[in-house]
Specification:
InterPro entries: Ser_deHydtase-like_asu, UPF0597. It comes from Plebeiibacterium marinum. This is UPF0597 protein OM074_03420. Belongs to the UPF0597 family. GO terms for molecular function: L-cysteine desulfhydrase activity. There is one protein chain. With about 425 residues, the chain is an alpha+beta fold. The protein has 2 domains: about 25-170, 60s Ribosomal Protein L30, Chain: A (2-Layer Sandwich), CATH 3.30.1330.90; about 180-425, 2-methylcitrate dehydratase PrpD. The chain has 16 helices and 8 strands. The strands form 2 sheets. The chain has a 6-stranded mixed sheet. The protein has a two-stranded antiparallel sheet with strand order 1-8. Strand 4 and strand 5 (about 135-145) form a beta hairpin. The chain starts with 5 loop residues before the first helix and ends with a helix.
């Protein structure tokens, strides 16, 4: 790809927008970020708090441990952590530095302060509003569409900052993702000046490998990663699944190590990167080759998620596991044809696994997604594939990816509502 091409610059921008560090599940961390920002604007400790959240935020925060809170869960815990101990300047690492004393203060604030929860008044899938009150003074912060996208800040009756929340993420200030294609991704990954993306990829390898190792060594969540190794052994196909799952085991249960996220999700960041890192170790490739494989995995993940949306009833780990399959295929010598068939084969196998919020079972879904990505490659290597007209598979990888976007965005919209009702006991 010509480095003066607009596509080249767009892919670079997308990567820099997507690959960022976060500590903890990103939905509660986004709430903590909004709360920390609201507290900063208020310039006082609030005596009352109101939190407004869209259904998908409620779904993804309900069951996950908020790190650095002493094993607390849920929206109120994330809000209190942001207010009491958050540093808004650190964005998605907002509660990465919390002392034991501050953890006690978080618990005390929860016990002594009225924090009321409400459904978002806006028809936006990803929407958070935190309002904090101190006497007659009030401050509010709204985040919409993605985890760092502050669209409104208010203090008393004045607007400090405002940008009109639009109908979807593609109308925001992020780079247009619709330009992406599998062929373009491979072209970019094979031609990019690695120095342009090296810092982000180095951090992804370092952070995501560290939390995966932690998930294997110690007991976290349902220990899916350890179960895989103990049951099926230590070959590379098992390690690729196990270490990715182990990172999620730790992360979903409150591990305080950071993760480099993809498509706004740490679990997707783990699923897209750790299997590729494990295969690179097995194959003993050089660092440059690993980074190019990670570019393919990350960008294929983002490409799939573009049509689905940030939050959906369609499990994002599926997109990331298939992205990892694409990166692994390239590591094993595959080019566009092999990568494209790997993606289609894998999509035919696991598309439709539901997202029922962030919690320990995410690790199992990651393992299934990575398994499908690897199987998709080995099917094609052995002369086997799924064909157009078989279910949701359509001729051409881009057309099948579009079908998945339609399925996740439109077809599973009612499924999303039913999942939320089930989770809330309605």
């Amino acid at each position: 790809m010509d480095k003066s091409d607009k596509l080249y610059s767009a892919y670079l921008d997308i990567l820099h927008e997507e690959l960022m560090p976060a500590m903890g599940c990103t939905e509660p961390i986004a709430i903590a970020y909004a709360a920390a920002m609201a507290r900063k604007v208020l310039e006082d400790m609030p005596d009352r708090v109101e939190v407004y959240a869209s259904d998908n935020i409620i779904k993804n925060v309900k069951s996950v441990v908020v790190p650095n809170t002493g094993n607390l869960r849920g929206i109120k815990a994330a809000t209190a952590a942001g207010i009491v101990a958050g540093n808004a300047d650190k964005v998605l690492e907002v509660i990465s530095e919390v002392s034991r004393e501050k953890q006690k203060e978080i618990a005390l604030f929860l016990d002594s302060t009225d924090i009321s929860l409400h459904n978002s008044p806006n028809d936006i899938i990803f929407d958070i509003i935190v309002k904090v009150y101190a006497g007659s003074s009030c401050a509010s912060v709204q985040i919409s569409h993605y985890h760092t996208n502050i669209v409104h800040i208010g203090k008393d009756d004045k607007e400090v900052f405002h940008t009109q929340p639009c109908d979807d993420i593609n109308q925001t200030t992020v780079t247009d993702r619709s330009i992406m294609t599998v062929e373009g991704i491979i072209d970019f990954a094979e031609s990019v000046d690695i120095d342009k993306v090296k810092d982000a990829l180095q951090k992804q390898v370092k952070y995501n490998s560290a939390i995966a190792e932690e998930g294997i060594k110690n007991k976290w969540g349902a220990n899916v990663g350890s179960v895989l190794l103990n049951t099926w052994g230590n070959d590379i196909k098992t390690r690729a699944k196990a270490f990715a799952a182990a990172g999620s085991d730790a992360r979903m249960s409150g591990c305080e190590l950071p993760v480099v996220i993809v498509s706004g999700s740490g679990n997707q960041g783990l699923a897209a990167s750790v299997p590729v890192i494990e295969y690179a170790k097995e194959l003993q490739v050089d660092q440059d080759t690993l980074y190019r494989a990670l570019l393919i995995s990350n960008l294929v993940t983002i490409h799939q998620k573009t049509g689905i949306g940030r939050l959906s009833a369609y499990c994002g780990a599926i997109s990331a596991g298939i992205g990892a399959g694409a990166g692994i295929t390239w590591l094993l010598g595959g080019k566009y044809e092999e990568v494209a068939h790997t993606i289609v084969n894998a999509l035919a196998i696991v598309s439709g696994i539901i997202c029922d919020g962030a919690k320990p079972s995410c690790a199992g879904k990651i393992a299934s997604a990575v398994e499908a990505g690897i199987l998709g490659y080995h099917m094609y290597k052995n002369g086997q594939q799924f064909y157009a007209g078989e279910g949701i598979v359509t001729k051409g990888v881009e057309n099948t990816i579009k079908n998945i976007g339609r399925l996740g965005r439109d077809g599973m919209a009612q499924t999303d509502k039913e999942i939320i009702k089930i989770m809330l006991g309605e």
